[in-house]
Amino acid sequence: MNNKVTFEMIKEAKENLKGVINYTPIISASNISKNVFFKAENLQKTGSFKIRGSYNKISSLTEEELSKGVIACSSGNHAQGVALSASKRGIKSVVCMPTNAPLIKKEATENYGAEVISVDGVYDDAAREANRLSKEKGYVFIHPFDDPYIIAGQGTLGIEIIEQMPDVEQVIVPIGGGGLISGISIAIKALKPDCKIIGVQAKGVPSMYGSLKENHVVTVSDATTVADGIHVLTPGDLTFEIVKENVDEIVTVDEDEICAAIVELLQGPKIVAEGASATTLAAFKYANIDTSKKTVCLISGGNIELNSLERILTIGNIKLGRIFAINIELEDNAESLSKLLSLLASKGIGGVDVRRQYVTRNNDINFCNFYISFETKDIKHCKDIKETLIENNYNFSVI
């Protein structure tokens, strides 16, 4: 066991958090799999697990430290946890947030009582600015993941999972900087050593995955991801050591898989999950994980950016085979379009969206391109439609 974070610290954190946090449920989803269950931290105060660590950390500060106020850096969930925790203790809080952080998280952080400072760039840039202001103003820096008290607070989730489901065989946890999986893994390995701990990262920013592969902490190149809550380019030194010791496996999932998981969580167990949370179901479904084991997927938060939800649902439904979208070349007349739509209707499609797009130099003078999307049943249905279009000699590409 790592000597900086112990199971005793996690048990103490559990006592500190009594009356402060919600004891969130574990929800089944037999329509997805009889072996998958969801620890619903989207129902936690602030809509995320982060208050566990931030409140535990702030509770450890001296009166002198509390009087100076606290500062944090975050893309949103840690920000809200720190803001609410500081408000509960009656102290000042400042949060540096990257400019690309979801607006819903920025507004919520301010509503919980924090002063929000927007910083150009990603999380790592916000972290540098928070450290600078900490030194300049004397604020106590509340690290989002690489701190023993933060890790211990997040570890209370591990105790709850074992209390609620003693026969669990594996737990899947999102990884950004590594604080959440570090705490959970310490708790679960202490209580049930044979329970497998699997971490999951967005394929575009696999910082902990890459660090374990290189056997030292690395910084990965930046990339966009719908999983903004785990958009961390450099994991922690402390969390790296704990993950290396306690975590059995780390997998990655791509953006389409994350979006598909968001859709399935909404449609199945009716769980609102942000991108980082949905990575756990995406891992269960797409990352060659043993799905015969009784599995808890941690839904780490539900603070999804509503402005991006339509796009996420479209991408997710395409991945699941519930929407089929094509660019297709047709003669530029009503008869040609009507013939195609009649063919598609004979294949049992649902609602249709048709958009005449453009003429290019590659088009015959009498042809143009159309974007057409329509509702379908599943992947098999999409495959059948694609084969029908090929058989009828249509020139098209699948989106």
What does this structure look like?
The structure is a single chain. By secondary structure, the protein is an alpha/beta fold. It has 15 helices and 14 strands. It has helices spanning 7-16, 50-59, 63-68, 77-89, 103-111, 123-137, 148-164, 179-191, 207-214, 237-246, 255-267, 275-286, 309-319, 334-345, 379-391, and strands at 26-28, 36-40, 70-73, 93-98, 115-119, 140-141, 170-174, 196-202, 249-253, 295-299, 323-331, 352-358, 367-375, 395-398. Helix 8 links the parallel strand 7 and strand 8 (196-202). The longest helix is centred in the middle third of the chain and has 17 residues, at 148-164. The protein starts with 6 loop residues before the first helix and ends with a strand. The model has no long low-confidence stretch (mean pLDDT 94).
Any key phrases for this structure?
single chain, 399 residues, alpha/beta, six-stranded mixed sheet, four-stranded parallel sheet, 14 strands
What sequence of helices (H) and strands (E) makes up the elements?
HEEHHEHEHEHEHEHEHHEHHEHEHEEHE
Please report the number of helical segments: 15
What share of the residues lie within helices? Answer: 40-55%
Side-by-side strand order of the widest sheet: 1-2-10-7-8-9
Query: Major β-sheet, in short?
Result: 6 strands, mixed
How many strands?
14
List the uncertain runs.
Answer: none
Q: Which structural class do you get from the secondary structure elements?
A: alpha/beta
Principal-axes geometry comes out as elongated
Mean pLDDT: 94
Per DSSP, what share of the residues sits in E-state strands of 2 or more residues? 15-25%
Gyration radius over CA: 24 Å
- Separation, N- and C-terminal Cα atoms: 49 Å
